[in-house]
Protein 1
Amino acid sequence: TLLDDLTIGTGTTLILDGTAAPQLTIPDNMTLTINGGLEQAGGTTTLQDGGTLLLNGGASIFDGTFAVDSGADFENNGYLYLFGGATGSFADGTYTEGADGVFYFDDTEGANLTGLDPSFVHYTCDANDSATLTTALSKAADGYQIVEIYLEGDAELSDITIDASVDLCVRDGSTLTIA
């Protein structure tokens, strides 16, 4: 738990290693400014009511929980990447995207995101078969800012329209058949 405001400087990374289930709590009237990086490989980061997180660098959350409570203030001026087995939970109105802010979400390995307006989110996915590709393509209808899909295998599609907001990359050695 932060007992005072803290700044993680450029070139420095705060690492939450999941082996000991670390807890990072930003309570009321405290500010964590990340100009460098945050890597979370487990445990829980909680931005509580009245707490502030200014992300000017980058954060990679690939396991554990990243929670932003109602009344908290999270301003993203860098990038946040939620993937792997991570869970992201956002209360309404707690996320502000700065001019250079990007929120990447990849649920290929089961990551889960709730409570955040998808129009803030750059959805990305590695698809390795027809079913996964079809599911990923349907994300465009959910209102994501960008949908980016990488096909890494063979897939066949029929009777499908690919939304203009979707970037579909067929990787070297993969085959996409449209019937």
Note: Helices lie at 130-137.
Protein 2
Amino acid sequence: VEEWFGASGHADLVDSFWSAVEKGALSADLEAYPYDFGDIDRVVAALIPADATAVQRDQFNDLAGLVMLLGERGDVKADPIRHNWAPAAAYSILNRLRTVGAPSCPIQLNLAFATTLRESAPQEAVEREFRTAMELCGGDPTPAYYLGIDRLIRNLTADSCPEASLLPSDLAAGAINIF
């Protein structure tokens, strides 16, 4: 992630970005969807210009993907705040991208996926984001596949599955690795 900031000419913003991620835990409003990540959203809005070019939007979409991977594969013991709040930062980047420029399949698909990274994500919000991705992605089956995986994971919980002890303990991580 730090390399991305440097390569894209935003090295001066990497510290503010991670500082905002750390503060995001204190300023987030997770009761309503779309989410309001407070400080994270403000830094992201400053980072992504309203007149972002298609190339810039693609670069920020890539950044969001890297941040999601950091959240999944980062060292939770070494940096628990970045690890736990990286999905929020990715969501914030993607949510901002959908407000600048024309709608795009890759950005909407990543936004829909980022929405699933909160266990408490409202199912109707997840479905709405994936339905929008299905519309934008034409005949590409990927959005429907991701939605199906999300539904599967949400239904395979200890409360709803009597054979939960037979499931791998890292079922969600395994599903993320499929993609």
Note: The longest helix spans residues 54-73.
Protein 3
Amino acid sequence: HYDAHELSDKVLLLKSLELSSPDAELELSLKKELPNYQYFDGSFDRSLRSTVAALDSLAQPDLAIENLTAATNLINKETANFKIDLKNNGYKTIDQGIVYTFIDNVKADFEIDLAQLHLAIPPGSTGSVQVELPSTTTMIANTNLKFYFDIPDDSNISDNWVSKDFNFAPALDATAALPA
């Protein structure tokens, strides 16, 4: 059972839990408890070392989607590529998460794992993700695409969505689009 009473002990325990993740419940409990040790001037334990360590332990990423654009011509039954521009407004690097895709409000069959892309967006920085839709057989004319970025510990998920309508041209072989 956890019995540390000093802020520095709690911060060190929290940092070790973040690295090894044996007890997610304890880690969450400590993150909720740490702000109770903050003084009115913003410091923790009135020490620079404790304040820096506590703030580092409490740091969270905050992904914001800034733009969604088509990176290729959009033609039914052809591969479509999109570029999503991102910004990290938080205080922790974004290096993991899952991107979900919705086509006309229906969840697509694939997901993108940001860790596999080796994407890392430090605090205050920008980055982008390329999304390739290999199957566009159901996309014709005005098609709504929506992307959601599920980022662990994101401090504000309301800006993790982007939705935009794109106009897909008819198939080059003049065949009909397939039903969804």
Note: Strands lie at 63-70, 80-88, 98-103, 106-113, 126-133, 141-150, 161-168.
Protein 4
Amino acid sequence: SNIGGLFGTIVPTLLLVGNRNNSLTVIIFAVVLGLNALFYFVAMKPLNETKKMYKNEIDALDEREGIFKDIFENLKTALKSKAFLTYILFQVLALSPGIVYFTAFLFMADYVLVLDGLSATIADILPGVMLLVAAPFIGKFIVKKFGAKRASMIGIIPTALAYLSLFFVQNIVQLTIAYC
């Protein structure tokens, strides 16, 4: 999913930042779609579906008292779970700003720093590539030493500092460092 997300940011950045010919962007978009289709094909190829699988699912649905009763029972159980509520709050309060930030990044690159699409794309994907390469190694060390919960909480501190540093960005180098 990280690779798909990495490729998914290339096309909007190239399309929406700077005034330039978009023919290269259309080609890159086609390549991204092709890669995405290839990833799905490779992932789905070894999966085998049999009629028995569907028969078992239909029989299981017939034994239950309707799908909506299951949904409401599961929802009630989830809302009683402190771990689930903590996870949802963490998603909303800590991770949502990162998702919303991408739109602000496009605006900053185009109208504040007046970058072209290629420069903005490099500033956008470079941190993702660095994370893709370094995260497995750093993650093992940090999670092993501090635990997943504490590592997540500690990780919020540099993230917040990086978001605050965006107020002082004046050029593409500073933007890339803040985005890392």
Note: The first helix runs from residue 2 to 16.
